[in-house]
Design brief:
This protein is mostly helical. The protein is built from six helices and no strands. It folds into two domains: 10-40; 52-108, no CATH class.
């Protein structure tokens, strides 16, 4: 929509801005940028890092999956139970500090032993 002078109307400008915002939201959603932004701004909502109870539950699920695999323990060691790091604010100070709160593995949070030979899943 053009006025007689060749200027764009206000409606066209507002529509273009809204479409640009929608496009950015869609791009951020599919690229996972919202997750990154959420972690950086975690202090705003009062949470930073992974929730301990949810992480323990996830680790228990990883443990059960590892126990049910018929593969040797060397292959099981590549499972998330042994390799996936978590950052947990254990003292609830809003910060992830020190080795006891960052890069925690499931083997530090949940006891998981192979039911066949009684060995720890991650060794």
């Amino acid at each position: 929509m053009m006025n007689k002078k060749g200027d764009m109307s206000l409606t066209t400008v507002i529509t273009g801005i809204i479409l640009l915002i929608v496009l950015l939201v869609v791009v951020f959603f599919f690229t996972g940028t919202f997750n990154t932004i959420g972690k950086k701004l975690g202090f705003i909502s009062g949470t930073l890092g992974d929730d301990l109870s949810i992480t323990v539950q996830a680790c228990q699920n990883y443990c059960e999956t590892a126990k049910n695999l018929p593969n040797p323990l060397e292959r099981i060691k590549s499972m998330p139970f042994c390799t996936k790091p978590f950052a947990i604010d254990k003292n609830n100070d809003g910060k992830i500090e020190g080795s006891d709160e960052e890069n925690l593995k499931c083997k530090e949070l949940v006891d998981c032993t192979d039911s066949v030979n009684g060995e720890a899943i991650c060794g």
